[in-house]
Amino acid sequence: MPTLPIGNVTFFLTDIEGSTRLVHELGSGFGAVLDAHHAIVRRAIEANRGREVSTEGDAFFAVFQSAADAVNAAATVQRELAAAGWPDGVSVAVRIGLHTGEGVLGGDNYIGVDVHRAARISAAGHGGQVLLSDAARGLVESHLPAGVELRDLGRHRLKDLPDPEHLSQLVINGLPDAFPPLRTADVSSTNIVAPATTLIGRDRDLRELESLLASTRLLTLTGPGGTGKTRLATELGARAVGHYRDGVFLVALETFDERSPAAGEIARIVGARVAGRDPEDTLVEQLAEREVALLLDNLEQLASAGPLVSRLLASAPGLSIVATSRVPLHVSFEQEYPVSPLDVPTADEAIDVESLARVEAVALFVDRAKRARPSFRLTESDAHAVAAICRRLDGLPLAIELAAARVKIFSPAALLSRLDRALPLLDSGNVDVPARQRTLRAAIEWSCALLGDPQQALFRRLTVFSGGWTVEAADRVVTSEPDLGLDILDGLAALVDHSLIRARPDDDAGETRFDMLQLIREYGAERLAETPDAAPIGRRHAEWVLALAEQAATALESDADPIWLDRMTREHDNLRAALRWAATDDERELGLRLATAAWRFWQQRGHTREGREWFDRLLPGKPESDLDPAVVAAAHTAAGGLAYWQNDLAAAETHYDRALDLDRSLGLADRLGNDFYNRGFVSMFTGDLDGARRRFDESADLFSAAGQFERLADTTLVRGAVELRAGNLAEARTWATEGRRIHLEQGNRGRATDGAMVLSFINVGLGDLDAAQTWIETAMSETAEAGYLARWPLIYEVGVALAVKLNRPLDALRLAGAARRRRQALGGSAPTFFASIDQIVAEARAAAIAQGGADGADAAWAEGELLDDDALIGLLRALIPSD
Asked: What angle do CA 538, 544, 548 make, to 5 degrees?
């Protein structure tokens, strides 16, 4: 092989456009066509003193030492190809690229950036077109051969090359000179219009999507209406321009529900000429040789979208598709990417304006609010309301944008107050976007319209749940009366596919839990209220919650069962929804049963204030004579318990006395023991210790007669508390030890923990610090294991007494501050068994002041209020000597 020239050379690259199509059309006849093509190109190269470097399939690579010779060769090739006698219906169209640069050899071929530039120039053209780089043009434009001229095509960005290239077209007399736009990474190779607003809060998504797009050919962005799928896909497409030789195109398909018209729209957007042919066949043919990305927006209503996409991807190896859909396509190649709402501030997150402004949903709200009212600024006075708005709207971008537009009229606080029903407030939007994207209601209606009647009915009924549900719960509540006519698993899967509900694994419960965004639930609830299903579905839901709460009540009556506490925590929003439904005169009895069953959960998980509010709402109303008196008595017992745990002894006494009167009138002997027991606590904490002893003894007699030995242990233990308050420490220790022993014998570890706590305090008073330390460690371990939040303030108070005895007054004040703060956080707490605690705290403060002054004492108290439970447990354990 002759030596290839080096130095300044002109690279000459060709290939046949549509060669794959020709292979399919001609079959074995393609070989003869390819041979004729090769002969024409080789003759032109040799006749113009060029050197053939290589051939691969239908592509040639040659070099010329003269740019003018390369131009002559290119013109010759195009003329002879146009004049050749090809088989009927066959056209062999070759694109040619010329670039002058440095010829650097690597073995028997050329290497270097100039070779790559020449290849990109060739690839940018169309069949029959000859393109020249600026360097090549500069060498030939002053002495072009006869019959040709140059046309300036301007500057273009070439794939993978950092600098744009000024390209020219060789116009050859007698041959076509009008071609589609070049296949370069220019504005002309995309129809994506720069959006009017900034994309906020999607940096992480974009990084992940760019990585996925580089490794997959079908990327489907799914999610409910209003999550910003279209906006995210558009931004992704804009960033991808330059990575696809033939462009990136956005195709809006929301008005298409049939395959052929959709294919025609895609063909129109990408510039494929249909001209009376089948649009899909033409599209397949036109895309076969292209390197292009299609953004197919809103595919969910196109029933045949999957087959259409599959055919396009199978026929066009250079094609990538980014689809937006509320439903996955479920085809090969597909990589689904669920688009989540934006991050929102947590409800218990401390409000710091600077930090809050960086939260995704808040940043979007602030940006759009400034567009509506340029003077808007996020301030400390608005911060709580803005955070709450973003939470109420689930971080849904469309909802946040619509809400932010309202700051032109409302302050954030006023806006928040109107969001109890958000959809009416957000029922107007920009007119320059598709109708489905203008309002939240339209976005959700669009999704629902794609469902069959049974799925729509299931969706409406599921809105009776709040905070989520399981398959078992849905099966019990929403599938019957009237029957939906579909399998619950299939129905749930369909709603997940349509992005109307979400499925999330609940690792703690070991099952899948479903939920829906609040705004979607609000829409579905509106639709449910319009149907005859509303009343029976509401009742079945309330009855399901009641059955669950009554099971929990049985488990929690004698112990703080962490499994049931966690389960009730998961279903707390469903409990609230059931109570709201039942808080009417017609259903008040059911509401009272719900609240009564839930009271131990409320007390043990720190929701005493909320529980009392429900009883305050449910107990008044129509006369008690219209209700089952046993239900009313039980409700007063529960309401009294919550009042007691908030240290509201007057209210507790009122409720307990009413329960006692009702149970006496009903002759419910099995309840009277508990009534006397409860009433004894009020007597003890109001200083009537003799009355307390009398009532506890009465309850003990009743429990003993009924064989309720677990409850008998309660009265034994609490007699120890009476003697503790009376200052009879030795007698108190005897009662408390016996009470704990019986509780453990009965398997009631939760109540036994109260014994450990009381025994620790008693032993501090007796000066037996070793025993006190042992008992407080036992109380801490058992409380932590049970997850019984309401017991911690009492344990911290035991720690106060122990720390004082150990001459650690600052630690005592830290624990006292923590106990006070925890009582407040829990909505109050039960009266302390330890009548002397205030005196002990005063002793600790005096000792702390003596050691380091009042400032040090105040600082210790304040520090204790801020310590979390882990730190406080560590502090308590520091009081216990290690073995």
From this structure: 145
- The dihedral built from the CA positions of residue 155, 161, 163 and 166, taken in this order, carries a sign that is negative
Q: Which fold has domain 670-747?
A: 1.25.40
Q: Which residue has the tokens 């409800």?
A: 347
Contacts of 833 (CB under 8 A, 6+ apart): 721, 724, 725, 757, 758, 761, 794
* The model's pTM: 0.67
The reply to whether 670-747 shares the fold of 7-181 is no
Architecture in CATH of 7-181? 2-Layer Sandwich (3.30)
- For 91, the token pair is 């056209």
3-state secondary structure of 589: helix
Which residues on neighbouring strands pair with residue 838, listed in sequence order? none
**Interatomic CA distance for residues 278 and 282, integer angstroms:** 6
Three-class secondary structure of residue 753 per DSSP: helix
Over residues 828-868, the pLDDT tens digits come to 667 777 777 888 999 999 999 998 899 999 999 999 999 98
Report the alpha-carbon distance of residue 504 to residue 512 in Å, rounded.
Answer: 6
Closest alpha carbon to 776 in 760, 789, 762, 752: 760
Does domain 533-667 bear CATH number 3.50.30.40?
A: no
For the chain, which residues make up each domain, given as ranges?
7-181, 190-338, 353-419, 451-531, 533-667, 670-747, 749-877
d(CA 186, CA 438): 31
* 500 within 8 A of 518, measured Cβ to Cβ: no
CATH homologous superfamily for the domain 190-338: P-loop containing nucleotide triphosphate hydrolases (3.40.50.300)
Amino acid at 319: L
268-293: pLDDT as tens digits: 888 776 666 788 888 888 888 888 99
Reported as a pLDDT band with limits 50, 70 and 90, residue 403 is: confident
